[in-house]
Specification:
Length: about 190
């Protein structure tokens, strides 16, 4: 019988112990970080393979260094793999843009936003990207997985280590917030939900 998946709180404890130099935590953490090259390869394949195997190898090394430097920001709100997926996805998108091999994709099909009026009524792509970044965790993650990666709610939930119902809630809340930000409005009674 396979061992149960670690919970976000167990992952947080592991990361904190490793960052504090506990040798019994460093090796398990290093093994968990071993998923980074696989995540990058999967993202690359889903995006039409704009990066070569050499590019992916370089990106994997750079991503691991960046992950280690930012590991103290891991808050345990999702599993370590969910956090790593988001990190890898953003690193991949940045590297792809720098390489110039991939046009900047529109992160959402604006005319399919719940209650949206159509692409002609919406701001430029850069404004959409900025609005998505402003949403931040957790809403941005689910929207990006649904629209950049074309993942189902179940797949997005699995990648983030959350229940499917939570992924749906975050998605629809995020779409509502994104729509309001793009229109330059604040939803009634809205407070930043981060």
């Amino acid at each position: 019988m396979p061992s149960p998946e670690p919970s976000p709180s167990q992952d947080l404890a592991l990361v904190q112990r490793a960052l504090n130099g506990h040798s019994d935590a460093v090796r398990p953490l290093a093994q968990r970080l071993g998923c980074v090259p696989k995540l990058l390869a999967r993202i690359n394949a889903r995006r039409g393979s704009p990066l070569t195997s050499h590019d992916l190898e370089d990106l994997g090394q750079d991503a691991l260094i960046a992950i280690w430097k930012k590991l103290e920001k891991f808050s345990g709100q999702t599993t370590l793999e969910g956090w790593l997926y988001r990190f890898c996805f953003l690193e991949f998108m940045n590297r792809s843009r720098v390489k110039g091999r991939m046009p900047r994709p529109m992160p959402v099909e604006l005319d399919t936003l719940e209650g949206g009026e159509g692409a002609s009524d919406w701001p430029a792509q850069e404004e959409v990207e900025e609005a998505l970044r402003e949403l931040g965790y957790p809403d941005e993650d689910v929207i990006r997985l649904r629209h950049f990666e074309n993942l189902s709610f179940d797949q997005a939930a699995e990648a983030l280590g959350i229940p499917s119902s939570t992924a749906k809630t975050r998605y629809y809340r995020g779409i509502r917030r994104l729509r309001h930000r793009l229109r330059g409005l604040a939803p009634e009674g809205h407070r930043d939900e981060r």
